[in-house]
Amino acid sequence: MEVGLTWGRKMRLSFFLLQPFRRTPLMIDMVSRGFYSTDMMRVRQQTNGTGMIRRATGRQRRIAGLIAAGIVILFGSLWLLQRLHFDFGLLFGPCGMKQRTGLPCPTCGMSTSVLAFSRGDLLTAFYVQPAAAFLCCLLVVAAFFASLVSVLGVYLTILDRLWAEIGLGRLVVGLLIILAAGWAVTFARALAARP
Known about the structure:
Elements: H1 7-17, H2 25-32, H3 38-48, E1 53-55, H4 58-83, H5 96-101, H6 110-119, H7 122-128, H8 130-152, E2 154-156, H9 157-193
Antiparallel strand pairs: 1-2
Helix pairs in contact: 4-6, 4-8, 6-7, 6-8, 7-8, 8-9
């Protein structure tokens, strides 16, 4: 049996039809039948707008926990090894390019900068190799967001959109630009120090 529109329902229908927001056929049908409610508003808000925050799944929380723990363990172990006076020269030999030409290679000073960063000496880290210090800062930011996801279960949907827009290719190009900029600084400093 078809329900006819009364004067009140017609007024509500015309009021909603004149609103400046996008309407769906379901909403117009619901309004015309007098079933417009907060449930309908909630459904409309969920389908039209994407929230900035959503609840993380269990898998996302575990992965984020591993990322955050890995970064904290990395910097924590570097800090502890420095406190125990471990000789990092045993792991990383001297730079071959610097020994032959006297000029630094693109990665010269990276280990020294990362070690200074893990000690908390940020000025030294940025002075020795700005690219390494900047990448360490990016790791700290990543650990912060990963800990938000793992501990609080809060997932920022803007990160998905950011990753979708940037993509892997642009990320690699960005990292290469950062590395080249750090090398330019250390190279210029080495050229200025030459007699």
